[in-house]
């Protein structure tokens, strides 16, 4: 974490608004946390997506995901007819995934710290791209090797309605709007809660256009 990055966060935070909004026992929404860094985040994201383009992966059941996905970092999440897993290589290129840009790593660590998780070092960043109408059905994230570390997410572009459920598929979900620059940290007892994203509404974001991009930073290995 570079000191100048830290100053940026301090300077841009509106004084009145609470910095962190608790949504679960060990889960926090950090409204606008990434906004001071978007000028560095967006070009880094573009470079990653040139090296490892978004693609619509196929689930074990044979359905093509409505969300386009890619990854950076040492491990990337993939799915195909044989199952879900993390891979050191991008199956599209046969090459290792692009490195995690330092601005991504610093931001994820700072957000985790803010939510009470120190020394968060992500080895994987999953990139999800939603166009209007795309959604993510309720699911649990269980493909990581350990659940001690939190998952940190960054929302960019069009708004989304995030569903934060319980520990069984049928449990009631909270609906949490996520806007450009918002970050969420899920850890500890909340790590295995069901969650999903409602279909994205039509719209145009001034910087990202007609799309939402979500990054999730994970310790997968
Ligand atoms: C809550 N992505 O990629 S962010 C996913 O907005 C995923 O693209 C959504 O669910 C998206 O798996 C939601 C984050 C998220 C990730 C892991 C969680 C929320 C979580 C684990 C437990 C509880
Ligand atoms: Fe998930």
TrEMBL record:
Cofactor(s) the protein requires to work? Fe(2+)
One Pfam family named in its UniProt record: 2OG-FeII_Oxy_2
Per UniProt, where does Fe cation bind?
A: 139, 141, 195
* Residues noted as binding substrate in the record, renumbered to the chain: 77, 84-86, 143, 169
Annotated Fe2OG dioxygenase domain ranges read 121-221
Cofactor: how and how many bound: Binds 1 Fe(2+) ion per subunit.
Q: What is the source species?
A: Pseudomonas shahriarae
Q: Which residues cross the membrane?
A: 147-168
Cellular component (GO) terms are: cytoplasm
Under which name does UniProt file this protein? Answer: DNA oxidative demethylase AlkB
Molecular function (Gene Ontology), one example: ferrous iron binding
């Amino acid at each position: 974490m570079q000191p100048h990055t830290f100053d940026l966060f301090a300077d841009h935070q509106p004084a009145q608004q609470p910095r962190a909004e608790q949504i679960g026992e060990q889960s926090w929404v950090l409204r606008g946390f990434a906004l001071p860094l978007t000028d560095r985040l967006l070009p880094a994201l573009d470079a990653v997506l040139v090296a490892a383009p978004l693609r619509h992966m196929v689930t074990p059941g044979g359905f093509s995901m409505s969300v386009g996905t890619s990854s950076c970092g040492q491990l990337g999440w993939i799915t195909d007819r044989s199952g879900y897993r993390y891979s050191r290589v991008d199956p599209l290129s046969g090459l290792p995934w692009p490195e995690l840009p330092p601005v991504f790593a610093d931001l994820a660590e700072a957000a985790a710290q803010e939510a009470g998780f120190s020394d968060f070092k992500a080895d994987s960043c999953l990139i999800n791209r939603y166009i209007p109408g795309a959604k993510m059905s309720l699911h649990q994230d269980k493909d990581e090797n350990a659940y001690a570390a939190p998952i940190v997410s960054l929302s960019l572009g069009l708004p989304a309605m995030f569903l934060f459920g319980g520990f069984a598929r049928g449990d009631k979900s909270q609906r949490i709007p996520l806007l450009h620059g918002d970050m969420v940290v899920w850890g500890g007892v909340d790590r295995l809660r069901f969650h999903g994203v409602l279909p994205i509404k039509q719209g145009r974001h001034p910087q990202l256009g007609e799309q939402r991009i979500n990054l999730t930073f994970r310790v997968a290995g």
